[in-house]
Amino acid sequence: MTTSHEVPAEPTPFRLVPGKTALIVIDMQRDFILPGGFGESLGNDVDQLLKVVPPLAALIAAARDAGIMVIHTREGHRPDLSDCPPAKLNRGAPSQRIGDPGKYGRILIRGEYGHDIVDELAPAPGEVVIDKPGKGAFYATELQDVLTGAGITQLLVTGVTTEVCVHTTTREANDRGYECLVVSDCVGSYFPDFQRIGLEMIKAQGGIFGWVADSAAVIPALAALGTPLSQV
Ligand code: TIU
């Protein structure tokens, strides 16, 4: 039995299963990441998220080379805000709430420039893009159907922010029976303490929500996935 598909992860090695793994890239949207955008207007340090872009671009490239499914998500709402509950809409500073005009268009509104994914990580033609109204990528979306249809049982989880949409999605996926490997340098939080503790929470208690490894550990295993077993 080969171990080349095995990622040295915590709390235990994580074995990638050919044909069963997808990479999910959560909410790498201009509104959250770019200077002058919604995230920064809330007082957040967007450099903490910007630094995720280069390693994540490399991981996405490795996934595409290996032929594994890449799924992107975007958090946002309809222009009439009919899918945004008041409890979400009413939070945040007045004039900087969802639907208000921002530097990159109406904040977190589908179709606006700021709602879309940063250029460096743009979805390739044919890749699935899930528009989600909540923090989790399963709530009120077609993600479950997409994964079931493709026979996916494992997720490599990336994107922003670690303690919010990455955590919510990982927890939702874990409860649905997916094995989740969170890629530590390909997820980001505005808050360094939340980044550190958010990752610890995933892998604590024997991997209560999943596994954690960095992209340097994942990429060689992905490369092996693109190679027939007889050659590894
Ligand atoms: N994508 C995501 O995490 N949405 C957020 O609102 N995150 C914050 O950390 N605010």
TrEMBL record:
Family matches, as SUPFAM superfamilies: Isochorismatase-like hydrolases
Coiled-coil region(s) = none
Q: Does the keyword Hydrolase apply?
A: yes
Q: Where does the Isochorismatase-like domain start and stop, copy by copy?
A: 21-213
**Which UniProt keyword terms apply here?**
Hydrolase
The record's section on Pfam families has: Isochorismatase (PF00857)
Q: Name one GO molecular function term.
A: hydrolase activity
Q: Could you identify this protein by its name?
A: Isochorismatase-like domain-containing protein
Per the UniProt entry, what species is this protein from, by scientific name?
Mycolicibacterium madagascariense
